[in-house]
């Protein structure tokens, strides 16, 4: 590339003008800078980049800037939003822009760049889920021909050369993109000010498809008129791609080969079934090691022992060696029969697998530990990145290049030796250090074989998951992982890097739909200030590790990256918490409002009358044994939470008006506190949380090219959705938990494209039917990801059976029948509901496996309540659900696969080809489907209404 510093002052050098133009609406105090790889654009130092000036053009704010560059100039560049001190507030998503000036420009001529701000949403088709899996091509789309030399054959007074650029990652083989009959990027177009659209041209003459939306326009040219315009037109405006997926926890899968629990290699069979059923995605729950307590409590998949290590639960012991002795094979067979139960027996399964694995390890350790493949794995995870990159190493680890594998193995040894994961009980090993670690894992240590056993297990887990992941990629199936928000208090990560965590606190959620007392997850909150010192390297490392296996992921509780609900370590529920970060109420502020008695508001306040009402004659026993009395028989109940680190700061307790302490206040104090409470929770923090998310989330998103989805449930600040949209994050909606005030259920047609919606069935049907009857065009409505349930909710069948009132409401409103609905969710109803979801105009329709099996009678014999994966209100819930049918049986079930595939085929969604490429309804890339016609809907409802008269046992097509 040209270094302008080398040619400065050289009068013989030909130079051209380079002019930047980009529309972008900023806020007060913000401006735009273009920064690039060459010194004229700051050499990637934003403070030295080219400042742009604003100019109003109608409703748009246009930013412009110019500089002189030598002919033949090349560089990379990006746009940045900065404050008055040139501090970066946000930057463009996606890859850096590349600029190569055309040849043949004359001295003093101007090249104008017409750019559009690159959003993360634009880059979704370029994520690994689409680029490497769904749209993966065997042919190259690289442009081999040069752009050519600009010749002065045109009338220089009224003509310019326009180079059109557009991103179209899903272009089919033997097709091209054209504008006004001129092939894109392979020719130059002379044009006056005009409008146009792009077309995708098929291999067959006359087979073309124009992009959607209004014509594009070439805006008024600047003065002096440029000789050349490089016009970046963003993405090809196609109908959005639509696909379907299946969700199931890894532990819930059942196969003929497993030992009591789903295993990584089972994913290959699941992928086969998914492909043959028309699914492009398989979604899992977290798969990291959770072996903290050594008992069934460890079945909770969101409480990680290590954010890098995989769970030994999912190991297939039969695949550890090709030379397993007969006696061990017989032991494996006996274990299969013993552990093949209705649910997962977590403790027995873990003990059995580790016992068998140790026996095989003893036989094979020398061979495996000296193999090239193991040494490569060990080296990669001992020094996961070059020290100078320090992507995932903490500050102390960066210096020494220490990886995660050794600390994990050492932790597991110490956990078992001391019979506890509480590292505060480990004596001299309580405080982690590199020196102590190296002695523990030394080849000369007596425990070296134990340490190597943990290496060995992680090595084989890696091989097995990597094999399954590559199989999924080749089959065109996206494997979607889950990134837990927390780590266990007694984990490898808190032992190695305690400075990254606030160990005297606990993470949770305020009261919500799931639990009126809130939730206390028990995880320590994060020390974001410390994490920022190495640009959130620990988080980036987690994503880099996940990207080895997954091409999409779900960010658990994404609200935690805006703010987290922080509780004192001793708290039992989620009630007495505060948001971190947040702007507290100061003592001075409260005093100005006439609030003076801070002890009264922040200390326990429960009168004996309240205890008498709750506990009757036993109130004195409760008070004397469980409460500390002070001041006229008042007990634990507070209105304001005093900051433990600054006694002059306070936080209003959640649901403040429900406390007896608040109810006993005078009217003035009540009115003041209600106003401050509302301001604290709904207005005061918005800017702070917006800025906080834009500091933390980009570090995650830029650390991998996986497709990212965010679980944004709970009390949603207004800043969340704009930030997620800006960053290209797909959100989550559960219709029974609407984020809009005043609604009993969310309205799917109001959701934005970048949301992932888990729909509650009946309103979805109502809206779709209304749209059909009104002949509503659905091609321009919002898009989302829909599913009838998720792992934190009851399944389709369970919902139908557990809530008679809503079931009757559904039957009357949607079916139009005043008779009583079936007490069970029979296959006809399940099919009807699934059909409505798959036909929604969403990017993804993802279905729990239990809901898909509900379309066939023989798979509905198990009580519906037993299919629920999690009870969010129970912190000690046993995560043990297993699908009662094997994957092999599902693969053989042609009727079920045909039924499901017909659902997807009829919806116009894309599905992976099985064998020969199949012709789908609509374009191969997926099209938005119009709502069912009124006649189709009526016919379907009539069939369902017959269920009361003549129940059927077969799954039938309703629509």
From TrEMBL:
Its EC number is 2.4.1.25. It is an enzyme of class 2 (transferase). It catalyses: Transfers a segment of a (1->4)-alpha-D-glucan to a new position in an acceptor, which may be glucose or a (1->4)-alpha-D-glucan. It is found in: Cytoplasm. Signal peptide: none annotated. SUPFAM superfamilies: (Trans)glycosidases, Starch-binding domain-like. Residues 10-119 form the CBM20 domain. Pfam families: CBM_20 (PF00686), Glyco_hydro_77 (PF02446). Gene3D superfamilies: Glycosidases, Immunoglobulins. GO terms for biological process: carbohydrate metabolic process. Its main location: cytoplasm. One of its GO terms (cellular component) is cytoplasm. One of its GO terms (molecular function) is starch binding. Keywords: Carbohydrate metabolism, Cytoplasm, Glycosyltransferase, Transferase. Belongs to the disproportionating enzyme family. This is 4-alpha-glucanotransferase.
């Amino acid at each position: 590339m040209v270094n302008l510093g080398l040619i400065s002052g050289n009068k013989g050098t030909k130079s051209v003008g380079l002019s930047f133009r980009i529309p972008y609406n900023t806020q007060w105090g913000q401006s735009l800078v273009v920064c690039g790889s060459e010194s004229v654009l700051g050499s990637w130092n934003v403070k030295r980049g080219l400042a742009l000036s604003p100019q109003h053009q109608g409703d748009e704010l246009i930013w412009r800037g110019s500089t002189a560059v030598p002919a033949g100039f090349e560089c990379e560049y990006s746009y940045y939003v900065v404050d008055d001190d040139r501090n970066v507030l946000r930057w463009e998503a996606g890859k850096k822009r590349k600029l190569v000036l055309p040849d043949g420009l004359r001295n003093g001529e101007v090249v104008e760049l017409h750019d559009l701000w690159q959003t993360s949403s634009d880059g979704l088709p370029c994520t690994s889920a689409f680029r490497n899996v769904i749209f993966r091509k065997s042919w190259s789309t690289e442009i081999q021909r040069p752009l050519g030399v600009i010749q002065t054959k045109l009338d220089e007074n009224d003509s310019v050369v326009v180079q059109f650029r557009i991103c179209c990652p899903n272009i089919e083989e033997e097709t091209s993109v054209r504008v006004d009959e001129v092939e894109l990027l392979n020719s130059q177009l002379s044009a006056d000010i005009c409008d146009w659209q792009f077309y995708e041209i098929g291999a067959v003459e006359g087979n073309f498809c124009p992009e959607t939306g209004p014509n594009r326009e070439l805006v008024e040219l600047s003065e002096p008129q440029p000789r050349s315009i490089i016009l970046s037109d963003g993405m090809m405006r196609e109908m959005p791609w639509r696909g379907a997926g299946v969700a199931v926890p890894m532990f819930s899968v059942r196969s003929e080969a497993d030992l009591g629990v789903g295993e990584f290699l089972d994913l290959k069979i699941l992928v086969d079934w998914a492909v043959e059923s028309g699914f492009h995605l398989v979604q899992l729950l977290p798969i990291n090691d959770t072996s903290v307590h050594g008992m069934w409590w460890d079945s909770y998949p969101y409480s990680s022992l290590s954010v890098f290590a995989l769970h030994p639960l999912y190991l297939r012991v039969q695949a550890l060696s090709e030379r397993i002795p007969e006696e061990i094979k017989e032991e494996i067979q006996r274990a299969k029969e013993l552990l093949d139960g209705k649910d997962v027996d977590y403790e027995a399964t873990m003990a059995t697998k580790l016992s068998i694995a140790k026996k095989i390890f003893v036989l094979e350790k020398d061979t495996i530990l000296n193999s090239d493949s193991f040494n490569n794995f060990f080296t990669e995870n001992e020094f996961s990145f070059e020290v100078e990159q320090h992507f995932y190493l903490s500050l102390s680890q960066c210096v020494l290049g220490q990886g995660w594998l050794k600390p994990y193995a050492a932790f597991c040894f110490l956990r078992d030796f001391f019979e506890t994961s509480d590292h505060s009980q480990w004596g001299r090993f309580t405080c982690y250090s590199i020196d102590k670690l190296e002695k523990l894992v030394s080849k000369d240590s007596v425990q070296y074989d134990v340490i190597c056993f943990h290496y060995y297990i992680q090595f084989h887990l890696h091989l097995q998951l990597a094999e399954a992941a590559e199989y999924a990629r080749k089959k065109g199936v996206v494997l979607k992982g889950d990134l837990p928000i927390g780590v266990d208090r007694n984990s490898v990560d808190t032992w190695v890097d305690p400075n990254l965590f606030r160990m005297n606190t606990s993470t949770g959620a305020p009261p919500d739909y799931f639990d009126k007392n809130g939730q206390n997850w028990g995880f320590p909150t994060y020390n974001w200030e410390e994490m920022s010192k190495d640009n959130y390297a620990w988080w980036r490392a987690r994503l880099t590790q996940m990207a080895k296996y997954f091409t999409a992921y779900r960010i658990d509780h994404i609200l935690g990256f805006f703010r987290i609900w922080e509780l004192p370590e001793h708290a039992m529920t989620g009630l007495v918490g505060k948001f971190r970060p947040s702007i507290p109420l100061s003592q001075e502020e409260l005093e100005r409002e006439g609030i003076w008695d801070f002890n009264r508001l922040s200390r326990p306040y429960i009168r004996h009358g309240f205890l008498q009402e709750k506990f009757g004659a036993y109130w004195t026993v409760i008070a004397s044994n469980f409460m500390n009395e002070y001041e006229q028989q008042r007990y634990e109940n507070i209105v304001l939470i005093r900051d433990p680190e600054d006694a002059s700061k306070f936080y209003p307790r959640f649901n403040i008006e429900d406390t007896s302490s608040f109810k006993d206040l005078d009217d003035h104090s009540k009115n003041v506190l209600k106003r401050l409470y509302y301001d604290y929770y709904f207005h005061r923090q918005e800017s702070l949380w917006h800025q906080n998310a834009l500091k933390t989330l980009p570090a995650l998103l830029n650390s991998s090219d996986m497709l990212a989805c965010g679980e944004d449930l709970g009390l949603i600040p207004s800043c969340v959705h704009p930030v997620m949209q800006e960053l290209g994050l797909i959100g989550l909606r559960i219709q029974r938990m609407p984020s809009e005030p005043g609604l009993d259920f969310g309205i799917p047609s109001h959701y934005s494209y970048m949301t992932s919606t888990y729909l509650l069935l009946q309103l979805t049907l109502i809206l779709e039917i209304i749209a059909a009857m009104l002949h509503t065009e659905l091609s321009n409505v919002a898009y989302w990801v829909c599913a009838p349930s998720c792992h934190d909710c009851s399944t389709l069948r369970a919902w139908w059976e557990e809530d008679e009132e809503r079931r009757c409401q559904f039957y009357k409103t949607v079916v139009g029948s005043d008779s009583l609905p079936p007490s069970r969710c029979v296959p006809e109803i399940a099919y009807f509901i699934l059909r409505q979801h798959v036909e929604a105009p969403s990017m993804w329709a993802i279905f729990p496996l239990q809901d898909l099996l509900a379309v066939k009678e023989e798979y509905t014999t198990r009580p519906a309540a037993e299919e629920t994966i999690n009870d969010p209100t129970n912190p000690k819930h046993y995560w043990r659900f297993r699908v009662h049918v094997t994957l092999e049986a599902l693969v053989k079930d042609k009727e079920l696969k045909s039924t499901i595939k017909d659902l997807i085929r009829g919806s116009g969604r894309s599905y992976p080809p099985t064998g020969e490429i199949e012709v789908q309804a609509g374009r191969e890339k997926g099209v938005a489907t119009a709502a069912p016609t009124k006649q189709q809907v009526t016919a379907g409802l009539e069939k369902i209404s017959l269920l009361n008269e003549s129940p059927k046992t077969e799954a039938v097509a309703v629509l």
